[in-house]
Each structure stands twice: as C-alpha cells, then as structure tokens.
TrEMBL record:
Pfam families: Aldedh. One of its GO terms (molecular function) is aldehyde dehydrogenase (NAD+) activity. Residues 7-207, 217-367 form the Aldehyde dehydrogenase domain. It is an enzyme of class 1 (oxidoreductase). It catalyses: an aldehyde + NAD(+) + H2O = a carboxylate + NADH + 2 H(+). Its EC number is 1.2.1.3. The keyword Oxidoreductase applies. Belongs to the aldehyde dehydrogenase family. This is aldehyde dehydrogenase (NAD(+)). Transmembrane segments: none annotated. PANTHER family: ALDEHYDE DEHYDROGENASE-RELATED.
Length: 440
C-alpha cells in the first residue's frame, strides 16, 4: 500500500481525513494532463474565463457555511471566524478587486510610436502552474493566486496543506459545477513529504511553483508611543497577536511600549485579554482555538519558558477559560509577557502562537533607530500598518522584504507573477514579411 496523507484536527488529534499520497508517477500524469488542457484554456476568450470564475465564486458564497464548518474541523479556527474568512468582505472582496483589474492588467503594452514600425508587448500565460498553499488562511491565500493564474490563461495544479485537503477538493468541485472549465484546467495533488514536493517541481511540464501566500512569516513588531489611545491600541494589538491563535504570517510578535505609558498599556491589554475565550473551536463563543499541532504547541510553550527562565514576568490576566484547557487538543494559553530583553527567543524569532510579549523602552529611538514620519521611509519591510494590524487590503501589494521573501500577491501588480512578456517588433513593408525569432 502507498503512503497516506492524514488530517488530524487540532482540537482532538484524531484522524478525520485520509488521502492517498500522490506518487511521482501520478504527479507526472497530472501535469501532462495540465499541459494538454493548457492550449484550450489559453485560447478561451478572457471574457469567458472571467464569467466562469465569477459563477464559481457565487457558488462558493452559497456554500460558505459548509465550507466554514469544514475549515474549523480541519485547522481549528473558531467557527465564529471560519465562515467570515470566505464571506463577501474577505475572500469575495479580494476576488472582486482582482476581477476589476484583470482586463487592464492583462492587456498588451504599447511601444513608443515610430514611423514605419509597430511594436508592442503581449502578456502570455506560463502554462501548468503549481500552487502550494498553507493551512492557516487557505481560502484567503488561494484566491490571491488562483484567480490571477486562471484569468491569465494558465492551468493550475493545487497542492494543499495536509491539514486542509478539503479546501482544494471543494474548489475543484465548485469550478466543475460552475461549468465551462475545460477538463484538467484545475487539478489537485496531495503530499505531505518535502522530498516528494522537491521532485514534483523538477517535472519538465511544471513552471516555477508559486507558493500561494508568499511572503513567508516574520517577527513583526509594534510600537506604542506616548500619544497613543491605549484602550484602542490594546484592542488592536491583542487581536493582532491572538487572532487565529497567533498563526498568521503578519501576526504581532513583539510590542515595544514607551516607558511613560507601559504600565497603563499592560493593564489595558490584560483587560482586553480577560474577555477572550479559549476552547473548542466548534463553540460559537470561542475566539481562541488550538494551535495546529503538538509540535507547534511544544514550540510556543518552549519560547514562553525560555523567556520566564531569563527573567520575564508572566502578566497574563485571570481568565477561567485559560485554566486546564482540554488535554486532547493543542491548546496554548494566551500569554502576556513583560520585563523582556532581546536575549529571549520570543523577541528574536517568530512564535506563531498566542503570545503577547511587551518590552519597555525609554524613547522612540530605542524602539527603532528613527521615529516619526522618517520611520515610514526607512523601515525595511514590505508591508507597514499604522493604527491597525493584520488586515491586508486587496488594492495593496501583499509582500515582504529580506528573509520574508520578495514575491507578492494582490495590489495593482497582482497579475505579474502569472504571465511572461512577449515583445513584437514589426517593420511595415509592402508585399513581403520575414520573421526573426530570438531564442535567448
């Protein structure tokens, strides 16, 4: 028997889904089929491609409650948030934006006028495209890449996380039901093996894989100045640190607070966190669920213990739901840490869990080498939030710098990763024409 890809819900770690792992031979067949489907889809008029995808998006909205419940079961997001992830204001908002800019984004680019010549640039699809996407925001992540890829004329193979296989499978079902999509334009493969994935991307028919959801995570800081509305800021930063159990690539990972407002800010954070409920994600009153795995649970708790061993103080407020969470789940108690320094792992590395590290600083300059308006220009980050956090807008590029990666999705250039440029140089001659092709 072949290998299996298993899905264990973080709330109880009991296998709920089992899929046959795609072998390399099977994957090659999938990509051959994707290559065979490419000419037909590429030749499909843009308006028809757009209509097919629009109909599929409507079907997703009709099934949002089913999809939200399945999402909660697979990856542990509280049901109160699971449906919201794919509602009109989130997934649909992104889809609407991408649809609104698609035609202009994919239109040819004219060259400069020149007597006796025609020249322009066409935007051509790559062909079979592998989309690898994560479990933490699967519908939001995949729409960023799936729509531009398909609207550009590419065929797509989805490689979901083993934690959320139903997301990819439901998308294929819905696109098929919507009708009009040629066979094998969107397919799914399942693998949880890194070596298998490395072999898959070496298949000749596969273009460079797109890891939907790039950039990768980071160690996102926030800085609270003396002029901040502390109650508002505490609400925003607790949400930014704890939403989705802290499992977001743009979660708040560390908070620097000016010493003049430090104690008052910590008190506001404690008031806010005391209202949260940790527990079963299927409970509509829960707003903090488990982290994704036992390994993730151990990693987050290790960072907390490292900080405490080095002198940090646990300032977590009293909350009855934080006491003795269910042992069968991967629960991490949302934790406030103070009295921190940069020798502690929690201040240096991404935690990816519901931890709120708060460090006292004596000046703006101590929090960052520059302050005020200068800060915006010199920050070496692809995305900057002021007075809010963790809520990307579809009209802005979702991107990172340095080790977070430099690719992007969304924004006015959101289609760029899914086409290649083809330049046309035509000299107008009467009676004859010769063709020269550069293969470089």
């Amino acid at each position: 028997m072949g290998s299996k890809v298993l899905t264990l819900p973080p709330s109880n770690n009991k296998v709920i889904l089992e899929r046959d792992e795609t072998t390399l031979s099977e994957a090659k067949n999938v990509f051959r089929a994707s290559s065979d489907a490419f000419p037909s889809w590429r030749a499909t008029p843009f308006s028809q491609r757009r209509d097919i995808l629009t109909k599929a998006l409507c079907l997703i909205q009709e099934r949002k409650h089913q999809l939200g419940e399945e999402l909660t079961l697979q990856m542990g997001r509280p049901i109160s948030f699971g449906v919201k992830e794919i509602e009109i204001e989130t997934m649909q908002k992104r889809a609407d934006y991408l649809l609104s800019i698609a035609e202009e984004s994919l239109s040819p680019l004219p060259g400069q006028p020149e007597q006796g010549f025609q020249h322009w640039i066409e935007k051509e699809p790559f062909g079979p495209t592998l989309l690898v996407f994560a479990w933490n925001f699967p519908y939001l992540i995949i729409v960023n890449s799936l729509l531009p890829a398909l609207l550009s004329g590419n065929t797509v193979v989805l490689k979901p996380s083993p934690q959320t296989p139903l997301v990819a499978e439901r998308l294929v079902e819905i696109f098929t039901e919507a009708g009009g999509l040629p066979k094998d334009v969107v397919q799914v493969i399942h693998t949880g093996n890194a070596e298998t994935l490395r072999e898959l991307v070496r298949i000749p028919d596969v273009n460079e894989p797109v890891r939907a959801g790039e950039p990768r995570g980071g160690n996102d800081p926030a800085y609270v100045r003396t002029d901040a509305d502390l109650k508002y800021v505490a609400e925003q930063l607790v949400d930014g640190a704890v939403f989705n159990a802290g499992q977001s690539c743009c979660a708040i990972e560390r908070i620097y607070v000016h010493t003049d407002v430090h104690d008052e800010f910590v008190a506001e954070v404690q008031k806010e966190l005391a209202q949260y409920k940790l527990g079963d994600p299927a409970d509509k009153n829960t707003n903090v669920g488990p982290v994704i795995s036992r390994a993730a649970q151990a990693s987050v708790n290790a960072q907390i213990q490292d900080a405490l061993a080095k002198g940090a103080v646990n300032a977590t407020p009293s909350n009855p739901t934080f006491v003795n969470p269910a042992a069968e789940g991967n629960y991490v108690i949302p934790t406030v840490l103070i009295n921190l320094n940069h020798d502690m792992v929690v201040m240096k590395e991404e935690t990816f869990g519901p931890v709120i590290p708060i460090m006292r600083v004596s000046s703006d300059e101590e929090a960052d080498p520059v302050a005020g308006e200068k800060l915006l220009k010199v920050l070496e980050a692809g995305t900057v939030f002021i007075n809010r956090c963790d809520y990307p807008n579809p009209d802005l590029a979702w991107t990172g710098w340095k080790n977070s990666g430099t690719r992007h999705t969304l924004g006015p250039r959101g289609f760029d990763p899914f086409y290649k440029l083809k330049s046309y140089h035509i000299r107008e001659k009467q009676g004859w024409l010769f063709l020269s092709i550069s293969l470089e």
